[in-house]
Amino acid sequence: MTFGENLTMIIRFYTLLETSIGAISRLKSFSENVKQESSEGEDIVPPKERPADGKIDISGVSAAYEDNGEAPHEHLALDNLRLSIAPGERVAICGRSGSGKSSLLLLFLRLLDPVPRPKPTGPSQDHQPSNNPLPQQIAIDSLPLTSISRNHLRARILALPQEPVFLPSGTPTRTNLDPQHAASESDCVSALQAVSLWEFISARGGLDAPLSPDTLSQGQKQLFNLARAILRRRLRARDSEGGILLLDMQRVIMREFAGYTIVMVSHRLGMVMGFDRVVVMDAGRIVEMGRPAKLAETEGSKFRGL
Ligand SMILES: Nc1ncnc2c1ncn2[C@@H]1O[C@H](COP(=O)(O)OP(=O)(O)OP(=O)(O)O)[C@@H](O)[C@H]1O
């Protein structure tokens, strides 16, 4: 072996060692810093057809990211939210960056939990009375979220986040699309066809070929994520129709989710106008609510201002 080859090998192994040490350090910091979720009291496993209706009730809920224990929170991401959503209603959540839209979706998935409110803030408003008589609670189809098994809750609610998550590069496309291998090959192809991604995937070796998320554009990643939700919706439809879809992306295929209660975060007016109701947020509070077309016409409305 020449000196050059030896040097190349040393550099390659050294780089690998550095990468591995980095991974170990990230795992160590993850296990030290990330608190385990407590599943106390979450003993209800809803029957397969739930959430069949998709009714949502939020009564006086506040939430914060920092963990203060029992101490009051200075910065609330969500501040005394009260919102009822009827089964099958399509609600768009609007508001400036940082107003709490994504945090609201995290609430439904128990990725953010309610915290006690420090004190009534600001003047009482129509949409959010500051003297709230109800205990703070979120319920889906009249079941308090805190009593539903967290895993079941997350498995039942379809969520499309802003930043889609992919399995490590090299994982087959099919596993990325359907990690539990619950769907048939034709189900997978059909879901990818529904979002016009099948031709692209097929040209790269099809379902069993390894997928490198880096080779997908941001739009393609969102479409892939949408194909996952379509596939899960179609598999679920064999047991029950309806459910809850949380959308934190701009592109939606309404046709695929007819009958679902939809809560969508949106910045695009064109998308919002087709919804039943728009909820405008500011500083973690609901500041306006109503039919999008009506609010868009109302002089001085916050929605119009956006
Ligand atoms: N991981 C986090 N840690 C701490 N604070 C956070 C975190 N995520 C959001 N926040 C804070 O919570 C508040 C609400 O943020 P959120 O992401 O819900 O807003 P948003 O309306 O979805 O914004 P955007 O339109 O930019 O996505 C903001 O004050 C934000 O700084």
Which keywords apply here?
306 residues; alpha/beta; Rossmann fold; 3 domains; 6-stranded mixed beta sheet; 4-stranded antiparallel beta sheet; 10 helices; 17% strand; binds adenosine-5'-triphosphate; ATP-binding; P-loop containing nucleoside triphosphate hydrolase protein; ATPase-coupled transmembrane transporter activity; ABC_transporter-like_CS
Can you offer a commentary on this structure?
The chain has 306 residues and is an alpha/beta fold. The chain folds into three domains: 1-32; 56-157 and 258-305, Rossmann fold, CATH 3.40.50.300; 173-239, no CATH class. The chain is 33% helix and 17% strand. The protein has ten helices and ten strands. It has helices spanning 3-33, 101-108, 150-156, 173-177, 185-194, 198-203, 218-236, 269-272, 292-297, 302-305; strands at 56-63, 78-85, 90-95, 137-140, 143-144, 158-160, 244-247, 261-265, 277-282, 285-290. The strands form two sheets. A six-stranded mixed sheet has the order 6-7-8-3-9-10, with helices on both faces. The protein has a four-stranded antiparallel sheet with strand order 2-1-4-5, covered by helices on one side. It is globular and about 75 Å long. It starts with a helix and ends with a helix. This is P-loop containing nucleoside triphosphate hydrolase protein. Keywords: ATP-binding, Hydrolase, Nucleotide-binding. Residues 35-55, 116-137 are annotated as: Disordered. It holds the Pfam family ABC_tran.
